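Hello Y.,

Per our agreement to keep a running log of every chain we model this quarter, I'm adding this entry. I've kept the format consistent with earlier entries: sequence first, then predicted structure.
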Amino acid sequence: MMMTKSILAATAAVSLVACVQQDQPPAGIARAIPTADQVRINLPTGTSRTVGELAEWYVATRNITQTFNGGSAWVLILIHTIVQFPVTSVDGNTYTWGPWSDALDPAEYKLDVVDVGDGTYTYQLSGRSKTVAGSAFEVIIDGTADPRAGDLQGNGEFQIDFDAGRRVNPVDAGDERGQVEVRYDLAQRHLDLTIMSVDDNGNLVTGDYAYDERADGGGAMTFDVDADTGGTSALEQVGVHSQWQANGAGRADLSIKGGDAGAGATATECWNNLFARTFYTDSVGFAPTEGDAASCAF
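Predicted structure for the entry above:
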């Protein structure tokens, strides 16, 4: 999913901060929303070799992390940018930016942030289509933020509803479908994502992603997805577990089972700090075993 193109985040941000500004929000709101860098999935990258020489599952691991980085980043950049500006209106403990849109925009947006009173905040980015008369606001991004543990120690979660984004703004929403839920813990350097969507054929796709960053700069990710990978419409269960050191050397273990895969298969690939394959094997002879298992970083 090309999450970074969804809902024209930049347009929404510009529209909302262009509103008539009346009041300053509490300073804690801006502090509560983490920056994109604070929840970034850090995977060492390099271009010292051509893609053809790179370890195949290092490339896949990198692509997965970059996709999820983009999905988290555009939401946090959008919300964090908006709350730096004075609010449009205040109603009790609810601070609202918007609603606002440019004359030619097909939708208008607003951001509501609620100061819960215990140091935590909830927020919702909503939109309303201007192409359909009488349209109501729909929640596109729904989140909570708990900064009470201190700077770089907070946690929270947010959900992106791409289907709502498409209904609000069918002109700019892109091809994304379904929902993604993101949960983060800055103190633990941990990130979880849950995906609920459909593929191009309308088949259900669900997935779970977990990421942990180690103190030395290394990390690990687990990505499990139920999806139709080919053959009949039956769903297969695909799992990828990757680990990497701070210098980039790593290992990926893969599995597929169920659906057309039957009893399934497993594979392992390792790569060095230049991201070149040093070992590969699989359980069904899909490709020849090569390299030395002793070379694996894990």
